[in-house]
Amino acid sequence: MADSGLNPGRIPDALLLVVASCPHCPAVLASLAAMAKDGMLGRLEVVNVAVHPEVAEALGARSLPWVRIGPFELTGLRSRPELEEWARRAGSADGMADYFHTLLKDGELARVRAMIEAQPELLVELLPIVANPEAGISVRIGASATFEGLAGSAALQALVPRLAELAAHDDARIRADACFYLGLSRDAAARPALAVCVNDADAGVREIAAEALDELG
To answer: What parts of the sequence cross the membrane (predicted)?
Structure first.
């Protein structure tokens, strides 16, 4: 057996939806089957949606091939190296953050919001995007829209201490975003960090911090 590079306790299972008319399904199936043989997958389940359309409907799968590796849902033709990378991420602490970054980069904001609305504790996985000065504008906008949708929520309020740390980041854009999200928290615990930022060296940070304090009332 090949060395999977995964912790045995974190080897993910995979589910693949296929149909006979799908031109890319055989290649994805072959890659996943080889990964299962090499120990990178604990179990591989394959469903022919022509026979069981209810499975695709329940999962919201609208294009094939559709594969789920651990918590990650992927569609379309995927190479074996790409599938292997997602299998590794399924067993890593940063995997979900990477997944959200990829989805937002690909314009899948609705999927990110749906996942976080279903599991609000996943909101924390957007913090690496907030803290990344190299994150693209579409990714940052998507993260912002998701935070706005959870304004005043317990999930956002739980992130106030970490957002307060980001409000002291070296990068002004990160400080500004952190201040904005602190305001959205509607939590009085955000006030001390914002009070510091109203005297920030950057005018944009000062303005957003002042608006955030007003948001807190």
So the answer is: none
pLDDT per residue over 111-160, tens digit each? 999 999 999 999 999 999 999 999 999 999 999 999 999 999 999 999 99
Burial 144-165 (b: 16+ CB within 10 A, else e): bebbeebeebebbbebbeebbe
Helix (H, G, I), strand (E, B) or coil at 159: coil
Structure tokens at 54: 């209810």
* Residue 14: count of CB within 10 angstroms of its CB: 25
For 95-216, which CATH class?
A: mainly alpha
Domain positions in the chain: 10-90, 95-216
- Give how far Cα 213 sits from Cα of 12, 161, 179, 202, Å: 44, 16, 9, 17
Residues whose CB is less than 8 angstroms from the CB of residue 49 and which lie 6 or more positions away in sequence, other chains included: 17, 18, 19, 55, 56, 61, 64
Fold classified for 10-90: Glutaredoxin (3.40.30)
pLDDT digits (tens, 9 = 90+) for 13-55: 999 999 999 999 999 999 999 999 999 999 999 999 999 999 9
Entry pTM: 0.82
DSSP state letter for 105: H
The C-alpha atoms of residue 59 and residue 21 are separated, in whole angstroms, by 20
Radius of gyration of the chain, Cα coordinates, nearest whole angstrom: 21
**Please, which residues bridge with residue 66 across strands?**
17, 75
